[in-house]
Amino acid sequence: MSAVPRFKRGVKFRFDTVRDVWIILAPEKLFMPDEIAVEILKLVDGARTTDSIVDDLACRFDAPRETIANDVVAVLEDLSLRGAIQL
Prior knowledge:
This protein has 87 residues and is α+β, with helices and mostly antiparallel strands.
C-alpha cells in the first residue's frame, strides 16, 4: 500500500455550507461521502502514501491497523473506480 492517492484533475473535496456536509465535486458528478470516508479523504493530499494514511487514522482513532486499512483501501478503490481518486 505504498500508492500515493490524489484527487483527479478537476475533482474537489470541500465542505458544502449549504448542505452542511463534505462533498466531492467531479465533472458532472457529486459524491457525499460518509463520516469514515471524510476522515480518510481529509488526508488525501497527493503526498501521503496509503500506509501513512492508515497509520495516522489508526493512531488518531486508537483502532486496529488492519480494520483501518480495510476501510481505507475500500474507500479509495471505490472512489478510484468512480473516477474521483487516482491511485
